[in-house]
Amino acid sequence: MRLELLNTGTELLLGSVINTHVKFLAEALFPIGLRISRQVTVPDGDAIRDAVIETFGRTDVLLITGGLGPTTDDVTREIVSDLLGLELIEDAEVWRQIEERFARRQLCMSPRNRRQAMRPEPATVLWNPHGTAPGLYVPPLPGKSSPHIFVLPGPPRELRPMVEDYVVPMLRKLVGQSAISEMRVFRTAGLGESFVEEKVGEQLLGLGVELGYCARPGEVDIRVIGTAEQLGLASEIIRNVLSTSIVSDDQRSLEAVIVEALASRGESLSTAESCTGGAIAHRITNVPGASAVFLEGFVTYANNAKRRVLGVPKEDLEKYGAVSESVAAAMAEGGRKAAASDYALATTGIAGPTGGSEGKPVGTVFIALASKDHPTRVEKPFFPTDRERFKELVSQTALDLLRRNLC
């Protein structure tokens, strides 16, 4: 079945409100065998009419969000009714629940709220315990070429429970089981998108799966959609070829994998950051349960702080400079000692756009990993990019260095 999504609301196109509906609905629909084939966002008013008409005869299911409120710009139910030639009638039960909601909250009700009790005569009401605007389902009408139409409230706190409680179960009955497929996402680190495709793309496509890639700084996701048997074969190919570059196969982040690995081993981590300014600690502490493994983070930007907090030798700073292998190693070892942790990551580099030299151009960075049982490791990647991307790439590379060590 082809499904399209129509998001309405001038605020979405002005940038006043971020449209989170696409992500939520796509994730809710995939397990029942449906995907959004087209998504359109239009302002309030007559643009809704044109967008709805375009879907007739082209799609099987249309989800419309927004425009069910009591104000003059909320016209979705009226437009849908008019296009289908349906009469709007007042639903007594909907009106009773609206009245009760206002009474419970001890709020004064505007006469315009009565509009929210109106529905096209053949429509099914989708109840909304989180607001005054019920959703509506209008089945395809003979001679209209109209799809299954679901009209849903705009606020996420109202839309999401309605989708879970009503829309998904109704669509599951329409779809049946034959169209349902599975998806697996392999997250890799330290590889480029074109390299990943070159290594596994042809083999995976040969299985007849649907294949896609998503690249972010320092990592690439491989998205595989197909039957359970196809995914089993695809997993074997990806694991054999990409091996330790695979971070997860369930969309867990790199930092989540690290926190889980450290927790399972009963080990701990600290950070000593210069050029990343706390980005590594930030990513780790975004993971629930990080407090069990993350002890302390040091942001030692100035040379004096590196000496005072981490014990970096003055001689190393003067002889080799702050951006050097010896200073990175000393930072990691000093951070591990100060926090009494099992592991410590350290970063020192030149983010730019100034500060570089012929010997150490902008983008130069040293990443060190100190651990209790092994000699300190130092790597020297090179990321000549803007400051924000530089910090993302350095933090990603540092975390992956730790992950590979744990593996």
What would you note in describing this structure?
With 407 residues, the protein is an alpha/beta fold. The protein folds into three domains: 3-175, Molybdenum Cofactor Biosythetic Enzyme, Chain A (3-Layer(aba) Sandwich); 182-248, Alpha-Beta Plaits (2-Layer Sandwich); 254-406, Maf protein, CATH 3.90.950. The chain is built from 14 helices and 17 strands. It has a six-stranded mixed sheet, with helices on both faces. Strands 14-13-15-16-17 form a five-stranded mixed sheet, sandwiched between helices. Strands 10-11-9-12 form a four-stranded antiparallel sheet. A hairpin with a 2-residue loop joins strand 10 and strand 11 (219-226). Helix 7 crosses helix 8. The mean pLDDT is 95.
Keywords:
Alpha-Beta Plaits, alpha/beta, Molybdenum Cofactor Biosythetic Enzyme, Chain A, 3 domains, Maf protein, 407 residues
